[in-house]
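Support request from a user on the community tier.

User writes: "When I paste my structure tokens into the form, the page sometimes reloads and wipes my input. The last time it worked, I copied everything first. Here is what I submitted, just in case something in the input itself triggers the reload:"
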């Protein structure tokens, strides 16, 4: 961005100070806090130039300046050295993924909670794409005379589990046959393909009532999983922040945000579309293409495998350094957790 070096420094300090203290920044504050060896008139002139270029603005005529979306965007592009999470925060993240057999949905919900807790913002996780996630196996285990537990395991972990009603005449031999037939036929297929096959009327080997029954439950569990496109935690963190900084518009802005998240699929589509602009971390500063998100920033990063996305939602004055650090660190841990699950499943297959 073609700004004189001193104006770049002043703009960075205005954004940094506003993020930390949530109050308009005056030329006097810049001189006192950062010790620039120039006159107050020079700083005022530079701030006036920055205002003319729409990097900063005055909330009211006699106030100091606050950053605009353009100013925040400059700050994020300028910010190269990210602050690191504290050791306590890192330890909390590591502990969250120490249990190797958490259900995938449970893991994602807890990841969103972690992001919200660490940053004080809202955290979200978008699941991996069903068209890439593969079925590893299903496990059907008798619970009682009339019920069995069906567990669906993908290549990244347990997707869903549920109780299957069974007929009392179905013995353990038939249950073993169900396991073998489904796993031999469907293992390695993507989850959306499994859902498609489980929804079809079949006669080529699927005639056994117990198998058809298991497939009905498999279809139900996978369809329910696909209806959960977004895991979101910490929205309640945002309203007090909005009320503190912009009390007059806080409720309207929060209502707009809630409206934009009412359709999770639309939010996921907007995030995935925006991320195409950036192969790494994508940062939307008031320009996510979704009505109601105009006053909010979103930090989003990919995690693997299968192109999942996680990130932070917060007002424009969020602590970008902390948000970037948390998103990168938690994303790396979540990816390691899922890759570890894949390795465990591959090892189990070798020993079968």
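"...and here is what came back when it finally went through:"
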């Amino acid at each position: 961005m073609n700004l004189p070096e001193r104006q770049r420094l002043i703009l960075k300090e205005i954004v940094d100070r506003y993020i930390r203290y949530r109050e308009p920044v005056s030329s006097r504050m810049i001189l006192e806090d950062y010790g620039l060896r120039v006159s107050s008139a020079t700083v005022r002139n530079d701030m006036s130039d920055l205002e003319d270029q729409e990097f900063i603005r005055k909330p009211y005529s006699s106030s100091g300046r606050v950053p605009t979306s353009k100013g925040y965007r400059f700050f994020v592009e300028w910010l190269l050295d990210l602050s690191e999470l504290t050791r306590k925060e890192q330890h909390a993240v590591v502990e969250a993924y120490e249990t190797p057999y958490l259900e995938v949905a449970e893991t994602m919900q807890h990841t969103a909670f972690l992001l919200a807790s660490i940053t004080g913002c809202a955290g979200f996780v978008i699941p991996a794409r069903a068209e890439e996630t593969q079925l590893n196996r299903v496990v059907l285990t008798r619970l009682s005379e009339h019920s069995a537990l069906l567990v669906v395991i993908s290549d990244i972990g347990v997707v869903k589990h549920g109780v299957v009603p069974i007929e009392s005449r179905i013995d353990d031999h038939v249950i073993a046959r169900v396991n073998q037939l489904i796993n031999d036929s469907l293992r390695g297929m993507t989850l959306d393909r499994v859902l498609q096959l489980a929804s079809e009327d079949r006669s080529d080997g699927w005639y056994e009532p117990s198998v058809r029954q298991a497939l009905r439950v498999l279809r139900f569990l996978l369809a329910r999983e696909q209806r959960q496109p977004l895991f979101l935690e910490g929205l309640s963190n945002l309203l007090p922040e909005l009320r503190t900084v912009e009390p007059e518009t806080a409720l309207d802005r929060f209502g707009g945000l809630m409206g934009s998240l009412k359709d999770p699929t639309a939010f996921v589509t907007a995030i995935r579309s925006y991320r195409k602009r950036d192969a790494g971390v994508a940062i939307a500063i008031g320009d996510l293409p979704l009505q109601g998100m105009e006053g909010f920033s979103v930090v989003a990063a990919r995690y693997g495998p299968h192109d999942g996305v996680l990130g932070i939602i917060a007002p424009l004055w969020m602590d970008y350094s902390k948000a970037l650090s948390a998103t990168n660190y938690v994303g790396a841990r979540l990816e390691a957790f899922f890759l570890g699950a894949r390795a465990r499943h591959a090892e189990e297959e070798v020993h079968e």
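Agent notes: The reload is a front-end session timeout and is unrelated to the input. DSSP finds 13 helices and ten strands in the chain. The first strand starts at residue 56 and ends at 57. Escalated to web team.
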